[in-house]
Amino acid sequence: MQKTLRIKNDIHELSTMNQFLEKAGEELGLSTAFMMSLNLVMEEAVSNIIFYAYKGDVEDAVDISLVREGGELVVTLVDHGVAFDPTLRKDPDITLSAEDRPIGGLGIFLIKKLMDEVSYQRVNDRNVFIMKKKITE
Amino acid sequence: MEVVIEPKGEETVIKIEGRLDTNTARECEEKVLPVWKEPGVKVCIDCSELEYVSSAGLRLFLVLQKTTTANKGALRLVGMRDEVRETFSLTGFNALFKIEDAR
What we know:
The complex is a heterodimer of chains A (137) and B (103). Chain A has helices spanning 13-27, 32-52, 107-114, and strands spanning 2-7, 62-69, 72-79, 117-123, 126-134. Chain A is of the alpha+beta class and 137 residues long. Chain A has one domain: Heat Shock Protein 90, CATH 3.30.565. In chain A, strands 1-2-3-5-4 form a 5-stranded antiparallel sheet, covered by helices on one side. Chain B has 103 residues and is of the alpha/beta class. Chain B has one domain: STAS domain (Transcription Regulator spoIIAA, 2-Layer Sandwich), CATH 3.30.750.24. In chain B, strand 2, helix 1 and strand 3 (42-46) form a beta-alpha-beta unit. Chain A binds chain B through residues 11-12, 14-15, 33, 36, 39-40, 43-44, 47, 92, 94-95, 97-99, 101, 103-104, 106-107, 109-110, 113-114, and chain B through 21-23, 52, 54-56, 58-59, 62-63, 65-66, 69, 83, 87, 90-92, 95-97.
């Protein structure tokens, strides 16, 4: 079973996405705890695309797909904005004090922490970002 | 997201309810920052009704901690739910704040 959603590069689309996730989560039989993590990684990944991928307004900004494959949830995000590989982003130093911690740079780190596997490919001028997480009941 | 600010003794209690995310963190920042105008202010953030924090919410907490230090004040977070605590732990934010179980 595959669940898909296409959104514009408008930050208010995050609410549309959350409704989609809630419904998809129920249909795919995902637990509340799993949904919490999924919600978080999706907000981080999709808001990055909405904020940084495009110059003007784009109707087909992000294509979201969720598939339950065996014991895993596979999330694929496709956009046709500027090339960006999130997996290359350096992890923040989480041992620094509050004074020394820079503001920001935590979104992609959270995605890497919460998902089991993330991968990136540039295919036909599109960014394809795939995130996988094992489903634990 | 709702914010309730009330003085309690020598502390100002800020209760943040609901979701601190990309859509709400900026609005919350505008509502709470005036509390730090007074030097040496002691603030308690009641997180018992805070359901969700994304990196935009973490960013706000870090801004508040830095502002507290600059202002020579005090900041403690109380009643944090497990889901939010996990996000703090994953990013090392649990070490940056004084986090207490209850008021």
